[in-house]
Amino acid sequence: MAAPMIAPSILSADFARLGEEAEAVAGSDWLHVDVMDAHFVPNLTLGLPVVQSLLKATDIPLDCHLMIEDPARWAPPYAEAGAYNVTFHAEATDDPIAVAKDIRAAGARAGLSVKPGTPIEPYLEILREFDTLLVMSVEPGFGGQSFMPEVLSKARAVRKLVDAGELTLVVEIDGGINTDTIEQAAEAGIDCFVAGSAVYGTADPAAAVRALRAKAAGASKHLSL
Ligand SMILES: O=C(CO)[C@H](O)[C@H](O)COP(=O)(O)O
């Protein structure tokens, strides 16, 4: 496995200072951007204009997580704007392959996300159409919730396929990741860890990213022993 990646979630940042908040985590692998529409989830955050501004404000690749209805209509513009990853929810569309193809055609990596209660088995066959699988370890909608370890069986199942060479994709986890929970996620084979409150809820977000990366690296190490 490659070195663990950390993606701070700006959901926990100060929305009036997003450029500075991105700067505060400059060493991060991806910057996770939670787009919520108050329909697919009961919360409303930001949309394409803010993403376009963020793209001008930071060099960190943007990892856009669309918690929205109708991704077929709304996801490709995020790719056209220059987002690195555009991830949408399996539960939000009947044709995830078509959405993934459109995202890739528009120049971004395509990601599929599953809520905690959504089984992964029906999607294993189509994961070759994706560059990222985002396993939700809280109910999508809000930061600061408690980690749900029961979702890790999904990560283990997909990790097995990646390690066997049957799939090439980044396995990402989102929700409740902090220095107490990141090791169990790393042991399950997660490549990329989203963390909101554990990064932006601290006085030193850059140090928080380093601490998370070190813990994940320590725990992933014994995977290859
Ligand atoms: O997608 C999300 C919520 O739907 C957030 O990215 C996630 O919850 C991060 O926040 P925290 O690390 O505080 O749990």
UniProtKB/TrEMBL annotation:
A divalent metal cation binds at H32, D34, H65, D174. It catalyses: D-ribulose 5-phosphate = D-xylulose 5-phosphate. Binds 1 divalent metal cation per subunit. The keyword Metal-binding applies. Keywords: Carbohydrate metabolism, Isomerase, Metal-binding. Pathway: Carbohydrate degradation. One of its GO terms (molecular function) is D-ribulose-phosphate 3-epimerase activity. Pfam families: Ribul_P_3_epim. Its cofactor is Zn(2+); Mn(2+); Co(2+); Fe(2+). Its EC number is 5.1.3.1. Substrate binds at S9, H65, G141, F142, G143, G144, D174, G175, G176, G196, S197. It is an enzyme of class 5 (isomerase). InterPro entries: Aldolase_TIM, Ribul_P_3_epim, Ribul_P_3_epim-like, RibuloseP-bd_barrel. Signal peptide: none annotated. The active site is at D34 (proton acceptor), D174 (proton donor). Catalyzes the reversible epimerization of D-ribulose 5-phosphate to D-xylulose 5-phosphate. Belongs to the ribulose-phosphate 3-epimerase family. This is Ribulose-phosphate 3-epimerase.
